[in-house]
Amino acid sequence: MGLIFLGHMSQAVRIGTLGLTPYQVFTMEELDEATNGFEDSNLVSDGPQGQFYKGWLQDGSTVMIRSLKLKQKLSPQSLTQYMDVISKLRHVNLVSILGHCIPSIQDNTSTNDTLFLVYESVSNGTLKSHLTEWRKREMLKWPQRVSAVIGVARGIQFLHTVTIPGIVGNDLGIENIMLDETLTAKISNYNLPMLSKNKNKNNKVGSESPFSTLEENDRGSIRSLEQGEKEDVHQLGLILLEIMTGKPPGSKHELEALKVELQDCLSDGPSKLREIIDPTIRGTFALDSLQTLVAVALNCVAKDHRERPSIDDVLWNLQYSVQVQDGWTSSDSLSFHGS
Questions:
Q1: Helix, strand or coil for residue 155?
Q2: Which of 94, 114, 230, 232 is deepest in the core (most CB within 10 A)?
Q3: Which residues fall in a compositionally biased region of kind Polar residues (predicted)?
């Protein structure tokens, strides 16, 4: 079983990693103190993704501590190298990993098969809650919604490039996108890197999780890697549709109906589009900005994954939409104003 390699990030992607709290290795004593001995009252969730505990560090900051079971066949050297990769999963648009603790390495024993990951805690709610709770809805006008989606796109771009192969096939449901106090979007439920493994009978290099609690798959194969990347793009498209309409796309049948409706709106002009768009954002967007994102969303949710754009293309169009919006905001002539 081999290791995943660190990728070569562009300068634009690397910028998102600047200014973050230094990564650290925690002791079990520190985690025990943070969780009051992993008290049941601090257990937030317990499922296939591991156990999550709420904790408080000595500096007063709140964290989430994730407990994962390791596979026995992972050597200490491989585990140490793997944790070096984990330590790079830090970006302004991710709920970043602040550090880890491997009890067996600290105790010089091979009996403990548990790994603890310490994540930052984001307590301002989800992007979903900001679209559905009326007090929060007023905070998210069109510019703030586009900014949040750009944050998600940058987080995806980072995940796709931080390692080779990239971290793909992430759970990017809108309820997994957190917003901090500055309304910066942070992806909370992204996958952890996989370890490469020997070629299978089809002569493809596969990959597997080093954790016994997480499902294995073949994300290491070129075909599944591309599909995983485009699945992430598809989920981003669903988020785009929801920030525009204020409603979840619904079932596959409802999604297809919405796609047809939006495609017609691009041809028929702004009056029809106004009927579909979330009333909360009427009067806060430039028509060209909105139409650009409608087109981007439709491309992202194309049925055939090969027809979906790359995350780089999506990000370029999102940033273009912001430029159009900024020009509209600073102009006296409003291209479109709903009431």
A1: helix
A2: 232
A3: 205-214
